């Protein structure tokens, strides 16, 4: 009789096996290909003051295990097998821009295909750093990177790749992403690279998220009131200086502009780089 247990015994997938200890290659010089595909569900928040982005993503990872393959016809056509992820070796993938405040859920199961590929899924409420250029605020376009790579393995051991190209991925994003009012997704590009870190070359996959701000809220709440205040300031030159009316009117306009600037100061970061033109 064919059963999953028989297949598990054939693959030596037991708690006492050493498949989780070392990189699963028959020759140690053979690199392990690791495919990392990210699905962006939503841009939850962009914090200009702290230069961070809160996003909701899923990460689909697969890599080849040279010791876990079988012929489906020998096991009644079984092509996929789900096992606890703890039984297997897994690449130590990190998101280099991740910072404090993130949370994630890693599926406890891994799916193994008959050709030896291991598939895993994780979901993240990710807080990542992003250097924002606010010079054109509130008509700005921002680019933020999410870099997936290994914490300890060199590019000769683990090679990071993506399964889908930019155009097919972006079509998926357009169908699934939810933006929360202020930002709209313009594009996502994907690049593979080798970077020198800790004195050796490391492979990485970089997702560049391009998003554009929807400026209507700031136009209505800041730019339009500021324009009216400037018009009133010009109009004050035509007010008689008798009984201090002109002075009182100008002080009122100045205080109103100061309130708008204080509100804007709480939104924007305290930096001298790329000061907003507003």
Can you walk me through this structure?
The protein has 4 helices and 12 strands. The chain folds into 2 domains: 210 residues, Acetylcholine Binding Protein, Chain: A, CATH 2.70.170; 51 residues. With 278 residues, it is α+β, with helices and mostly antiparallel strands. The N and C termini lie far apart (75 Å). The mean pLDDT is 85. The strands form 2 sheets. Strands 1, 2, 3, 5, 6, 7, 9 and 10 form an 8-stranded mixed sheet that branches. It is elongated.
Number of domains: 2
Query: Number of DSSP helices?
Result: 4
Rounded average pLDDT: 85
Weakly predicted, low-confidence segments:
none
Could you state the order of secondary-structure elements as H and E? Answer: HEEEEEEEEEHEEEHH
> What percent of residues are in strands?
35-45%
Would you report the number of β strands? 12
**CA-CA gap between termini:** 75 Å
Membrane topology: Multi-pass membrane protein
Domain Neurotransmitter-gated ion-channel transmembrane: 223-278
Family: Belongs to the ligand-gated ion channel (TC 1.A.9) family.
Keywords: Cell membrane, Disulfide bond, Glycoprotein, Ion channel, Ion transport, Ligand-gated ion channel, Membrane, Postsynaptic cell membrane, Receptor, Signal, Synapse, Transmembrane, Transmembrane helix, Transport
């Amino acid at each position: 009789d064919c059963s999953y247990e028989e297949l598990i015994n054939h693959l030596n997938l037991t708690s006492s096996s050493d498949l989780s200890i070392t990189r699963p290659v028959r020759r140690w010089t053979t690199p392990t290909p690791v495919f990392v595909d990210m699905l962006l569900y939503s841009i939850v928040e962009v914090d200009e003051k702290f230069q961070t982005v809160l996003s909701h993503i899923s990460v689909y990872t697969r890599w080849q295990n040279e010791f876990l393959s079988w012929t489906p016809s020998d096991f009644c056509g079984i092509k996929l097998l789900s096992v606890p992820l703890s039984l297997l070796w897994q690449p130590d993938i990190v998101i280099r821009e991740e910072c404090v405040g993130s949370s994630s859920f890693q599926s406890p199961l891994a799916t193994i295909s008959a050709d030896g590929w291991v598939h895993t899924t994780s979901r993240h409420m990710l807080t990542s750093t992003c250097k924002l250029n606010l010079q054109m605020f509130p008509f700005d376009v921002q680019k933020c990177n999410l870099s997936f790579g290994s914490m300890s393995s060199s590019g000769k051991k683990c090679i990071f790749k993506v399964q889908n190209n930019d155009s097919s991925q972006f079509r998926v994003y357009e169908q699934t992403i939810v933006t929360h009012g202020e930002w709209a997704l313009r594009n996502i590009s994907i690049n593979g690279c080798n970077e020198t870190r800790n004195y050796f070359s490391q492979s990485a996959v970089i997702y560049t998220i391009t998003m554009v701000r929807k400026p209507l809220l700031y136009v209505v709440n800041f730019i339009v009131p500021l324009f009216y205040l400037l018009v009133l300031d010009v109009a004050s030159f035509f007010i008689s200086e008798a009984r201090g009316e002109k002075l009182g009117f100008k002080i009122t306009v100045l205080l109103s502009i100061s309130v708008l600037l204080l509100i804007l100061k709480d939104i924007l970061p305290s930096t001298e780089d790329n000061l907003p033109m507003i």
